[in-house]
Amino acid sequence: MKIIFVRHGETEWNKLARFQGSSDIELSEVGREQAKLVGKRLRDIEISAIYSSTFKRAYETALAIRGDRAIEIMKDKRLGEIDFGHWEGMLFEDVKIKYPEEFTVYRQRPHECVIPGEGSLDKARMRAWEALNEIIELYKDSEENIVIAAHGGIIRLMIFELLNIGTEAFTSFPLYNTAISVVEVTPERNILKLFNDINHLGLGEEAI
Fold it and tell me: Are 1 and 62 in contact (CB under 8 A)?
């Protein structure tokens, strides 16, 4: 089976570089266009199931990916983004100024950071893995394509779990809006086939 992870389209908070986390922010106009483009990119791919976070930005992206397919989008709150507590709604720069020590740990040693709200990245990783593992158990003996529309942080943590990558790498793997990442799950090993692909946005060198 292949798991096709898709990060949601842009929101106004993404554009402003605000911590978004568990805040239920909808897509911006740019984000809706991005969702249409990623839907077009995946239009001819045979998809057996689509899972989504319960947040609007992920679900709107999942709807665009589904298109005319007769597939129910299955929402799962465990696929929601990391809860950043009192950091949410704050600009990254303001968090850096107001909570300099915590922000430095988050950026440089994320596996050691006490995340406001969630508690830790490992806690978020385990609750997302619980949901992902259930999906894998349903389709592991197949050759089907499963889409998960979710969030940058939580997608990275799920991929890390699949590939046995430590959480300390969290801030070293950027994931852009509507980026596609693909992991092939086999009995022998899990293989990263694609990561952070945004060719459908037509950004060219701007994405480098």
Answer: no
